[in-house]
Every structure is written in C-alpha cells, then in structure tokens.
Specification:
CATH topology of the largest domain: Aspartate Aminotransferase, domain 2
Oligomer: single chain
Largest sheet: 7 strands, mixed
Structural class: alpha/beta
Bound molecules: pyridoxal-5'-phosphate
Helix content: 40-55%
Distance between the termini: 8 Å
Number of domains: 2
Number of helices: 16
Number of strands: 14
Length: about 450
C-alpha cells in the first residue's frame, strides 16, 4: 500500500472515531484548559482526544455517548475480577458507612496484611503505601538502609513507577540519560543492565557495593521484554552469593500469575516484594513486604540506627483495605486466575491466527492474563522472544500505526492499552470472539 493510501485510511478511521465519540471530544476540549495535554496519566493521552467513561461492569465499560466497549485496560491491570465485582462493591459500601479514614489503626488493615502473608511466599511483614511508586521507593530505601550500600541494579525496559530513583530506561532507546527534573547525580548509584545476562550481573555485584537488584519478574512492562527461562533462579543464586537483596516488583504480577504472584509460579523467593493494583482490587493503595528483619527497620520502637521513619496519610486506608480483602479472599483459591488465563490464551491464539492469515510482520505474545503485540519482529518465536532485540519488541510499531490501530479497535467496540492489554476473570468466550472480530476488521482497514 502506498503511503498516501495508508494516510487516507488513517484519516477515514479518525473521522469514524470522531463521529462515534462526540461527547468525549466536548469533554476533552474542557480538559485541555485544565490538565497538561488534557489528561491525568501519561498513557491516557490519545489523539484526537481520549474517550470518557461513564460506568463499567464486568468486562465492559460504557462511554459518555452510551457506547459499550469490551475493556482490556482493566484499571491499568488492577481488576483481575473485572469491574465492580459484587463482593468487592459490597465490602466497600459497608466500610463507607462505617469510616473512610479513622486516623487510627483498624481491624481491616490487620486482616489485609494477614492475607498477604498467607498468600505471598516471601511475605513475613507488610507495610502499606498509597501507590506502587511509593512501594518501590520504599523498597530501595529499605535495601539501602539494611545493607549500608548505595548502589541499585535495575534492568532496561523494567518499569517501577515514576519516582526519581528508578524512572529511567523504561522505554527504548535505552541510553541512560537523566530525565528532566531529576537532579544530575541522583542516578549515579543506579546501574542499568540489559536483562538476561547473568554474567554481567555477577560481575557488577562482585564489586561489593550493591544493595539490591530490582526487577519485574515476568520481564519489563509485564512481559513486553520477556525474560529467559531460568533467569530468576540464576539471579537468586547470584544475589545470594554476593549478599545482595533481591526485590521482585510484583505491582502488576502479584495475585495474577498465581495467588502468591510470579514468585509462587516460578518458585523463586525474593527478599522483598512490592505489591499494588490487584492487592487493592482497583482502589488506591500498595505495599512492600518481605523478610521481617528488613521490613522491621520501619518499626517505631526499634533502636536500630538504620531505622526508617515512614508516614503516609492514606497508608492502609480502610476503604482500600475492604476492597483488598474482598479481592484477595476471592483470588486465594486460584479459580479467577485460571479463568483469566484461559480467556487470554484464546485471545492470543486468535490474534496470532489473524496476524498470520494477513501475512503481517507482527508477533502476538504474552503469558498468564497479559497479551502484547510487536510489529517488525517477523519470524520471532513468541516463546523465545527474550532472544530478540528488546528495543524492537518493546517499540511495538510506529506511533501512527499504534494510534490508528487503537482508534480502529475503539470504533469496533474494544478498548486496548495500545498494543497490549489485561484480561480479567470476567472476559467470556463471547467477549474474546467479539474482540477477534474487531481485531480482524481493524487490521483490514489499517494495513
Ligand atoms: C511493575 C510496576 N511497578 C510499579 C508501578 C507503579 O505503580 P503506581 O502506578 O501504583 O504508582 C507500576 C504501575 O504500572 C508497575 O507496573
């Protein structure tokens, strides 16, 4: 197809998008006077305007024009049980009638932490925070305080929130540059390595000045940059050999890969773990958990000179705790995880078949209840993508194609997070088949 034809097709698609979502456009015109680029999260930005959602239930959401959409954002990955799961809603409603913030200890926080300890292999103690970003920030402070060392190892393509200590090299190109607003020197103690090269990690740790290694245990951006099988176990051995702490950032994999997260699934137990999203069933909150002797550095009664003072107005908020308990109790037996995995598997397979039939150079991949697509990775075996250039896999496709693809899927009633998404236990076979229909139609218009 010539570039003129492609451009015309994209323009047609944007016009269809505008006519399907007119009230969203009106709201967006107000929003641009209020927020930078009209949005409140970097990944919600979309041209010509994002959709505005009115309500949601199960696997679906409805926008302000009444359009029904099958949702694969699922609360940025926090809604394994789908939107407004009845058990969760009931628990939250009950708590709202009792107290939204007692400014005091309460029973729900104790039960919530007990569930985390019961389910997550490394969890001996828990500290709740307000967001995953705060949890990874706290994990680094704990590791540095505990070991008395400053250096931290992170991997290219791995995302750990937006705080100054780790918000670097998450997207290609992976040249280490200090992002705007972070003081020069702040990242001097951050060592960024490519994933899957255990010899390089071994060499860096042998200097004896590293406090911890932090990573997403299914690969950068929940598996968009996959890990070599066995890499987690190798990391465990190498960190133990050098007496360095291993931190699994399970903000996104926690309670999704298994009731005890990726660490349960892969049988590798880290020293510390950060949790968020599903931990709170879609409400704000997160936690850091792990070995008692490390987390106990937060103890107010400790005389340890390494003690860290930690406040936080919304730590263990009881409404969040109520949502978290209801969600974790439901997930504990593993059934919702299996349901979501089955739906995701059907979706990945169906998408891969459509891509193959159309002869595209896209690859559809992922595991558990995640899916990803990358363009320009022709011939790559989805199960050996860790061998493939991570920059190509993580780039996905050119921006115009991703944008047109996203608009096309919305026009056909499906909301994806770019070339990826999260599947919930509420996605039915019918949802998946409708999504595949939308996928086929969108690709037909697009490429
Ligand atoms: C692996 C990982 N860590 C940390 C975070 C940051 O969590 P939050 O958005 O709650 O600050 C995210 C968010 O997507 C994440 O995926």
């Amino acid at each position: 197809m010539t570039s003129d034809v492609v451009k015309r097709k994209h323009t047609d698609l944007i016009n269809q998008y505008r006519s399907k979502f007119p009230t969203s456009e009106v709201l967006y015109r107000r929003a641009v006077n209020t927020f930078p680029s009209g949005v409140t999260h970097v990944s919600r930005y979309m041209k010509p305007f994002p959709i505005y959602v009115d309500r949601a239930q199960g696997s679906r959401k409805w926008d302000v024009d009444g359009n029904e959409l099958i949702d694969y954002w699922m609360g940025h990955g926090s809604l394994l049980l789908g939107h407004r799961h009845p058990t969760m809603i009931e628990a939250v409603a009950k708590q709202l009638r009792r107290s939204t913030h007692p400014g005091a200890c309460h029973e729900l926080e104790v039960r919530w932490a007990e569930l985390v300890i019961e389910m997550v292999p490394c969890a001996e103690r828990v500290r709740f925070t307000s967001s995953g970003t705060e949890a990874t920030h706290m994990a680094l402070r704990l590791a540095r305080a505990f070991t008395g060392r400053d250096k931290v190892v992170k991997f290219e393509g791995h995302f750990h929130g937006w705080h100054s200590g780790l918000a670097v090299c998450t997207d290609p190109p992976f040249e280490q540059q200090t992002p705007p607003g972070i003081p020069r020197g702040e990242l001097d103690n951050l060592v960024i390595l490519p994933p899957n090269d255990i010899e390089q990690v071994d060499e860096v740790l042998s200097a004896g000045d590293v406090a911890c290694v932090i990573l997403e245990p299914t690969g950068g951006s929940f598996g968009q940059g996959p890990l070599k099988p066995g890499f987690l176990a190798e990391l465990r051995d190498v960190t133990r050999k050098h007496d360095v702490l291993l931190i699994f950032d399970e903000v996104i994999t926690g309670f999704r890969c298994a009731p005890g997260g990726a660490q349960e699934h892969f049988g590798v137990t880290p020293d510390l773990t950060t949790l968020g999203k599903i931990l709170v069933g879609g409400l704000p909150g997160a936690a850091v958990t792990g070995r008692a002797e490390i987390i106990d550095l937060l103890s107010s009664s400790s005389h340890d000179e390494r003690r860290i003072s930690h406040a936080g107005t919304y730590n263990a908020n009881p409404v969040s705790a109520a949502a978290g308990i209801a969600t974790l109790e439901f997930i504990k037996g593993g059934k919702p995880i299996r349901k979501a995995n089955e739906a995701a598997e059907r979706l990945r397979k169906g998408m891969a078949d459509i891509v193959a039939k159309r002869g595209l150079d896209w690859v559809v991949f992922g595991d558990f209840s995640f899916f990803h697509m990358a363009a320009g990775a022709a011939g790559a075996d989805p199960s050996r993508l860790w061998e493939f250039n991570q920059e190509v896999v993580k780039k996905g496709a050119d921006k115009d194609t991703i944008h047109a693809f996203r608009c096309g899927m919305l026009v056909h009633g499906v909301d994806l997070s770019g070339l990826r998404g999260w599947v919930s236990s509420e996605h039915t076979v019918e949802d998946v088949d409708r999504t595949l229909d939308a996928f086929g139609k969108t690709l037909r218009i697009l490429v």
